[in-house]
Amino acid sequence: MNKFSIFFAKHSQKLALLCAATACSLSYYVQPYYEVLCRWSVTRLDVEWEAKPSERILRITKEICSQFNMTDYQKSQLDIFLTPVDESLVLGSLRSPGYAFIGLPYFFGYESPSEIPLDSLDFYRPYFPYGPFSKIGKDRLDLMNLPESALKFLIAREIIRLQGVTITDQKLPLSARSQSLLTINSIIGSFYLSYQTIFLLNRTTRLPLRVSIASKLLIYTFIYLSGLFFQHQIILAWRRYCCLRADQIVCSLGESFRQGGLQYYDWRLRWNQFWAERQEEFKERKRLIKANNHDETVSYDPVMKHQLENEKSAERNTTQTDYYLPKSEDAPLDLSVMKQQLSNDKNQTNTNYLQRNRFNVSGNELWAGDGDGINLGWTGMLAIGLMPRIISSLFSLFSSPATSSQRYNQLTELEVKTIT
């Protein structure tokens, strides 16, 4: 053994503790910068500039803030921004220096489906081969219109998750920033405890002298994965409690918030079910494309398809408004066209979204509760589809987040127990 190996063997415990303490300290100081980076990475852009929240969102936020004991400084901390995804996001804390970010889906700012710009929704694409006036297209536009009472509940819930204090002096034990720090530090702690387990195993059983290198590596890997698995289960149970508790605190503000919560989770279930159906359709199209092996190139223009659709449709004019509404055909695109678009489409946002596995066919979340999908740790990687299918299948057997159905049922039962 050389000098370096001897030094490492003598001081391995001290080095392991030093590395763990350094990693925890580094995560604490890096956390505010990570929050800002995450905020800008998921911000919706309008051309080259950040899309601003609508008057509807700003008005409701100002109204909701009156339900909380917030100082002027805390109100200035609160930063509402729009995201291109369909899930809300909270970063930071109202109880510590720095910003407190709330990210809302961009379409929550629309008062009605007629305000939604159709050119930004990528109709007639392989992942959504329907027109805006088709039945499925209309269902999509209708779902993008969130009721105002549901939006009030959502904004109040997100302020609670930032550890805002209600007028009844209720709050969560940890803010979103503390939750994130708890997650990353628990991962570091699981690695440290796994190392201590391996160290104790080597000292008591002399494992390196009894088994081969391959077997030793397999045992070490199993110990580390077991530590991460138990860490994931503990954090998942804690996040589940915080999700359910946040809903209870919001409902304590009044009956109108409970009704808004029921509307919101009913909407969330219908939204997830809608995209779960699109996921299955997209998988089937990809399977057919691979099975039929369409190699021919086809010249295709979605604008031309829309014009042809209008020409084939009968005009429907009303005497009151003379509004022209073309009759849309729900016929899917040709498989060769789909293959060409999948290879040439530079905007893979919707494609990647459909390839994710965040919820089941009933609309319930698989890995993380609503609003917790974008975070550090195993739940975040599972939610965005970064983990191999074998590991995802294993974790799905033990994953029990606060699903939208459970949160909806909780609000139903709170009618007599909490609301006065």
Automatic annotation (TrEMBL):
GO CC field: membrane
Protein name: Uncharacterized protein
InterPro entries recorded: TMEM177
Domain of life of the native organism: Eukaryota
